[in-house]
Design goal:
Blueprint (H helix, E strand, L loop, with lengths): L1 E4 L3 H5 L6 E5 L7 H17 L2 E8 L2 H5 L12 H10 L4 E6 L2 H4 L3 H9 L4 E7 L15 H4 L5 E5 L3 E2 L2 E2 L2 H9 L7 H4 L3 E8 L4 H4 L5 E5 L9 E9 L2 E10 L12 E6 L10 E11 L7 H22 L1
Parallel strand pairs: 1-4, 2-3, 2-5, 3-4, 5-6
Antiparallel strand pairs: 7-8, 9-10, 9-14, 10-13, 11-12, 11-14, 12-13
């Protein structure tokens, strides 16, 4: 998949692209609904002998236009999103930097400059897609703005158990710790990328060494607690138990949040390694223990629960 960053119309004019079927949207998470949009464009491209493409925006419009941009969190950062879209077998990914200037484009100007000039012959988007200044363009007005240059397919609302599949719903599930509910909306377990860093080595001292994860604070993080997880490290997936929170048994002040994973049947030096942490199921809330022995006993139970969880999955 070729990735093109489109900062202005000139970027598009210089490409001289073949006819395209384009899926357009923000696509945070590339969830089941997003996949429907993208794969519909891919199928249309295949039927017509065109190239398939996805157009997305970065950063989130809320991070540019919202009142609290620093609070905007993501299911997938751009790097994650790119890999997921590439895995769907798309030819081009167009990344449009979302700026206040770009947000000020009138709907017709956006269609002229970013769709028609891109040689789009068929555009696919979700029913709630909007574009142009104040989001005043939508899937009804696009029929007029297209000037007959391209066809349009609207993907209607997709639901699971009468709940609309949306990035907002998925974020809420993650933030409340219901990670086991995420796959039916996302199409996979939620995961974040990061690097293993040195911690305070307390886990190793009590017989349960942990990999401490440093990761981008723009990710949506699960609620504090203990989780069954998998980690992709050293070229393979390893089962584990993850604690996310403030380590209340050792830390009185809630000034730093830790993401620490005890990997089961794994003993390698992985400091500095780039890893993927995949969240499977919540075991319990974070808890402050009266003493180290009580903590060790509970961690042993958590580890056994994780082992049994994966045995049932196999």
């Amino acid at each position: 998949m070729e990735v093109l960053t489109l900062k202005n119309t000139t970027d598009i004019l210089n490409e001289n692209l073949e006819p395209i079927a384009l899926a357009i949207g923000y696509f945070d998470g590339v969830h089941i609904g997003h996949q429907k949009v993208i794969l519909t464009a891919k199928e249309i491209a295949k039927q017509n002998g065109w190239k398939s493409a996805v157009m997305t925006f970065d950063p989130s419009p809320k991070a540019v236009l919202g009142k609290n941009p620093e609070e905007v969190k993501y299911i997938t950062l751009l790097e994650d999103k790119t890999k997921l879209i590439a895995a769907l077998g798309i030819d081009y990914l167009f990344v449009v930097p979302f700026t206040k200037e770009f947000a000020g484009l009138m709907p017709q100007s956006f269609i002229n400059d970013y769709i028609i000039q891109l040689n789009v012959r068929h555009l696919v988007a979700g029913f709630d897609f909007s574009y142009g200044k104040f989001g005043s363009g939508n899937m009804e007005t696009i029929k007029e703005h297209s000037k007959g240059k391209f066809a349009i397919t609207t993907i209607e609302k997709i639901t699971v158990e009468n709940e609309k599949i949306s990035s907002t719903t998925i974020k809420s599930l993650i933030e409340t710790g219901l990670v086991q509910e995420v796959p039916k909306y996302l199409g996979r377990n939620y995961s974040i990328n990061g690097t293993v860093i040195h911690g305070e080595k307390r886990g190793r001292q009590i017989g349960f060494p942990t990999a401490n994860l440093a990761s981008n604070n723009k990710y949506v993080y699960p609620a504090n607690g203990i989780y069954v997880v998998k980690m992709y490290v050293a070229g393979r997936w390893v089962n584990g138990v993850c604690s996310i929170g403030y380590n209340p048994t050792f830390n009185e002040e809630k000034n730093k949040r830790f993401v620490e994973t005890h990997l089961i049947d794994f003993d390698q030096n992985i400091y500095g390694e780039h890893v993927v942490l995949e969240w499977h199921s919540r075991l319990r809330d974070e808890e402050k223990f009266a003493n180290i022995d009580a903590l060790i006993a509970q961690i042993a139970k958590d580890k056994q629960n994780a082992i049994e969880y994966f045995q049932l999955k196999d």
